[in-house]
Amino acid sequence: MKFRKLMAVALIAAMAATMAVGCGGSSSDKSAEGSTDNSSADSGSDFDTSNDITIVSREDGSGTRGAFIELFGIEEKQSDGTKVDMTTTDAQITNNTSVMLTTVAGDEYAIGYVSLGSLNDSVKALKIDGAEATADNIENGSYKVSRPFNIAVKKDLDNEVAKDFMAYIMSTEGQEIVSNEKYIPVSDVEAYAGSKPSGKCVVGGSSSVSPLMEKLIEAYKKVNPNADIELQTSDSTTGMTSTIEGSYDIGMASRELKDDEASELEATVIATDGIAVIVNKANTADELSADQVKSIYVGDVTTWDEVSK
């Protein structure tokens, strides 16, 4: 009898221990899950919207800047007909696309802008007026922040390699590369049927057009290995003035040509590109209106909480 009682006590103790361990394990699991959930929920919670906005812009002469200030109304027309760039003097200036991306990626409170085709996952592109920055949305008209990519040559161009390369760019093969690089291609093109001449051609200008041009040059050299094409990256204004002066055979501009440039050069649109408004990935904002972007860049809005919903 005594033995049976001892066995019963031992059995009850064992069951109690097992239940305690089970409950403990369950509690531990829930605690771990809770910890994970809190970590996820806190993602971005350190972003202080009361902090000043770091405004980042491009240099004078940049086609991307020219298109950006025009599209967002930052460039204002004066009573005498002249246009004035109203970008705040507090803006940090970057001199090419890659520096813009690096600057915004390295500053939690920064805002900037880049060619849509140059956008990468180091930053976050904001919706503008509810529309995402995509090639499809540019085509359907919902994302309105877009501009042409132009190449331009002197009206009396006699460089056969330059002529043939331009024919390749505007061919089915060339425009397929434009599409593959996430730009909007030109329609109504035909297969390349060039003469594949030998010689040298210098192409230069916009740092926004340059990545696409690099791909086009690479592809063209495969069909015409006799061509020697040199690519020089600067900005749109330098691209146009250097072509007029004869330093470049083909100039690149990520904007429409100005009147004085158009009087000297013949321009060809090779693609349509969007301009993505970008912020640091830690930023809690996902969307701005066009008016809010303008207010930031002219200096009327200086902290993120002024544009937070």
UniProtKB/TrEMBL annotation:
Q: Where is the PBP domain?
A: 50-173, 192-306
Q: What is this protein called?
A: Phosphate ABC transporter substrate-binding protein
The similarity annotation says:
Belongs to the PstS family.
SUPFAM superfamilies per UniProt: Periplasmic binding protein-like II (SSF53850)
Q: Which organism is it from?
A: Coprococcus comes
Entries under Pfam families matching the protein: PBP_like_2 (PF12849)
Identify the main location. Answer: membrane
One of its GO biological process terms is: phosphate ion transport
Protein topology in the membrane: Lipid-anchor
Region described as Disordered: 26-59
Signal sequence interval, chain numbering: 1-20
Q: Which GO terms describe its cellular component?
A: plasma membrane
What function is annotated for this protein? Part of the ABC transporter complex PstSACB involved in phosphate import.
